Each structure stands twice: as C-alpha cells, then as structure tokens.
Amino acid sequence: MISINKAIELIKKHATALNKSTVKKVEKAGGYLLSGHISSRINMPPFRQSAIDGYALNIHDDLNYNLIDEVKAGDNHQPTLKQGEAVRIFTGAAVPNSANTVIMQEKVQASNDKITIETPIKENSNIRPLGEQVKKGEIALKKGTKLTPAAIGYLLSLGITEVEVFKKPNIAIVTTGNELIEPGQELSYGKIYESNSKMLLSALYNLKFYDVKLYKVEDNYEATVSILNEAIENNDLVLISGGISVGDYDFVSKALKALKVKEVFYKVKQKPGKPLFYGTKSEKQIFALPGNPAAALTCFYVYVYIALQKFMNREDLELPRLNAKSISAFNKKGDRPQFLKAIYNHGEVEILEGQNSSMLQTFALSNALVFAPEEVTTIKEGDDIKVILLPN
Ligand code: AMP
Ligand code: MG
Asked: Does residue 245 line the site of ligand 1, with CB under 6 A?
C-alpha cells in the first residue's frame, strides 16, 4: 500500500502525453491544444481600418476641410484626397491611402460639403494599422495554445477554418459486477442499478472528453480477460469499475496480470478508494477503480484527472486546491487519510454527513472534497482545512 502523494507522483511520472494530432474544424476545436504553430495567411487587419465613425482627413494647417466622398464598412473604393480634403468614414471601413488621420464625428462641425474641426488632430489617429494584430506569415498562435472561445474567434478572423490539434484519448469504461442492472429495467432481488459507467461518462463529458466506449462484463475470469483485452487494444485509457478488491469474485487484478499490464501501484492508503490500481501497457493507461460509487468518483477526480491532463499536454495536472475555514466538525476514524464530501462557499467549507464510500447521495450535493491527512483525527469548527474544488 502506498501513500496518496506517492500515487500522485507515480501517475505524473508514468502518464504520457498522447502525441497524436488530428485536424478539426476550428469551431469544433474548443478545449483542444494546438499541435503546431499557426501562421497567418493574411495581415490583420487586412487594410488600414477606421476605428470610429467620423472623417478621414488629408491634414493641412487649416481647421476647415472639403468633404469629397464617403466610405462605409465593406466599401472597396479608394477616393484620393488632396491636402485639405476629407471623406466621411465609418467604423471598420478602409481608410484611403491618401488620408493620414481620422477624426471623431463628435469633434467636428459638419455642413453639406465642408467640415470644421474643433481642435487640431495628430496624424494616424483612430486608424488601426495594416497587420496591427498579426502580419502575414507571422505566428498567430503558438503550438500548445489552448483553444478558448477567444482563440477560436481570433483564428476565424484570420480566415482559418481548420486546425491541427493534439488528439484526445479514446477512453473505455469497463463495468464489472453480476449484481448490476441497467436503469430503466425491473429491479429483482439482490440486484442494484448500475450507475458507475454513466457517472464516469458524465464526468468525462464534463471535462470535454467525448470519445468514450462502454463495456460490461460479469464476474467471470475468462470473460474479464477477454473484455479487458478488447478495451485495452482499442483505447488509450481504460477505466475499470469494481472487481479489483480481494473477494473470490473479483477478477480484475488477475486478468490484468494475464494481459501483461504493468502494475505501477495497487492499493493506496486512503479512504475511500483503498483498492485503486494503476498500470500501463506500452502507451496505454489503465485504472481499476473500486466499485463503490463514491470511491470510484473520488479516485476519478484525484487520480484519473491527472492522467487526462497529461494526455492533453496540459500543465495544471491537479484540480484546484485551496485552504478554507471549516464550518462543521468531523471525527476521523482510523489512520487512513480521507477525502470528505463537502460544500465550499466563499472561503468556508461544510463537511457533509454520510461519508460512506457506497453513498452518492452526499456526493450529489458536494462541490468539493475536503482532505483530512493521516495525522488529523478531529476537525473542529473554525479549523483551517484543505479543499479540492470539483469541476461540477
Ligand atoms: P466491488 O468493487 O466490485 O467489490 O464493488 C463494491 C460495491 O460497489 C458493491 O456494493 C457493488 O455492488 C457496488 N458497485 C460496483 N460496481 C457498481 C456500478 N457499476 N454501479 C453501482 N454500484 C456498483
Ligand atoms: Mg464486484
């Protein structure tokens, strides 16, 4: 049995980035990281652009100008201004090459074909220069940039419609257990509804991992070997639910050995989630999560999350952690460090009743996990405690 810190360290060491790339439509690439630099094929803006509604001038020493034409956004004509001449212009319109500044309409007295400006204006005012944001051939966004909505808007503004990004992993969720019935079907004696697969699926969707396949297997050694083999062959990350404890019908550990999965660790000194297994088979990552639903989800957020981040070449490998003031008391039994379902709100955190690893009811109300280290036996109101924020 290893410590939580050791387990986290080992995942960070063994989980590798999935250095495969794929081409995506820009609008569908949100959350992905660029797998190469993107250079701009155009100057942005592509012409000298007016930043305001006003008048483009060819400056002279006098405050009076003759108005000779108009250019609105989208127009593609190019009036030629002599000194002392002006054109009416609007935001986003192309400033004629012969104009050397633009003045705001609020700072001008206008009549039919003349304008008088109130105060002299400097050259190049209110003009967005050609290529101000990025010049043709320059790097617009670097390799590794995360595609946020702003980045997507920026790429589209450069006319870019497809990007090469790091591929997200293909993920398998394998549920084990003879007692499990699909929700929606009749429940018979001794059976329970299967909830882990779609709970984990929803946690993955929430983190924008959509390529997920679900596999099911009964508590039978041969079947477990065969399904796990298929899941590992066809996916980059395999999450197994249940069957990893020491019961006579827990076959996952034995099956993983038979499939030559290299054990990185098995069993972590923690509550919930003691029987957690993590291993690799060449580039593939395999987690066997305890079947108890709250334990499975806790292990997902504390451990699987790190592997997911590594797959994506991301730098923040763990969920945000902070310190908060406890507004509840808690007595910890035993010496295992514990993750406790809790509600965090503005610097304060409430540890909830019902911490059993089989109970999702409490987890359903939580937005955080409190971490109670090994040496802590009681948490009192007012204590400063460590909190992990969940990405709900
Ligand atoms: P196991 O780790 O297989 O011994 O399972 C531990 C507990 O979690 C048992 O009470 C199981 O019935 C329950 N359990 C296992 N898998 C699931 C699942 N997919 N959905 C809901 N409960 C489960
Ligand atoms: Mg089981």
From this structure: yes
